[in-house]
Design a protein that fits this description.
With about 300 residues, the protein is of the alpha+beta class. It is about 35% helix and about 25% strand. The longest helix is centred in the C-terminal third of the chain and has 20 residues, at about 200-215. The structure holds L-homoserine. The site of L-homoserine has 13 residues, from helix 5.
Length: about 300
Amino acid sequence: MKRLLTVRVPATSANLGPGFDCMGLALNLWNTFELYEGDGRGFTVVSHGEGADILPTDAGHLVARTMADELAMHLPIKPRDLSYHIVCHNQVPCGSGLGSSSTAVLAGLAFAQAILDPDGYLSPAAQARILMRAFEIEGHGDNVAPALLGGLVLVVGRDNEVLARQVPLPPFKVVVCVPDFYFMTSHARAVLPSHYARADAVFNIGRAMLVVEALRNGDFGLLSRALEDRIHEPYRLPAIPGALEAKRQALAAGAAAVGLSGAGPGLIAFAEHDHEAIGEVMQVAFGGAGLRARYWVLEVSETGLQVLP
Ligand code: HSE
């Protein structure tokens, strides 16, 4: 089968404490997607690595679905008449709070864009279009924007545009610990209130700005006092067995700050040193609550979605 395109997309950690739905960080853990011509019988998808035994192998796979819907929006063709073969090499754990579905949405959009506009699919205009569509599909941009652009990205939707800016960062590492716990984003969003007190909004606005300032300057002292949240973590952390204890233990082991990664169930810990020890105590804390957990020590990825040769 003829290979048409290969892209890789990084994991992301959204929210970063108080920046609910508005900021995220790209991390050096990647899902790679290869697109091949199909055999004329619809979509076939093969996954290796994370999620290989649970992900759909047909047009129901999120990359295929996104790509097919996007092509059908622009071409006089029905999704069921398309045929492509997709091979996924997944490092990002599914349902972990590390943006695995965003990697799939972006890959599907990039594949569609490459077919619709083979000469211009890498252009800034194509990138802006992919971001807009990914935002519409996900409903918020704090995973898709850093996964597309790389680094720390601030993002908001505004009428018919998405405002997204990358903030330059010094190099640092984080620890992400993911328990084996099913916590669907839709459920994690459903547990949130629909209204907040003004004091809580102010609490978050100020801290979100200070978290950006702390990360931008590598100021872990400031980060340790600014990375707090009243919008989502108070409702989500208690719903994840062991999460509050894992956070406590990580802080005791030297982490400057710990937050939910995206909607969870994973946690992200920021630390200048002792990353392995912090990962281990979080793993043990989840274990104490009866959950198996894995951890990764990851660098920030300055690059987002890449087209591979
Ligand atoms: N900002 C989103 C949330 C990220 O916390 O629900 C998850 O996709």
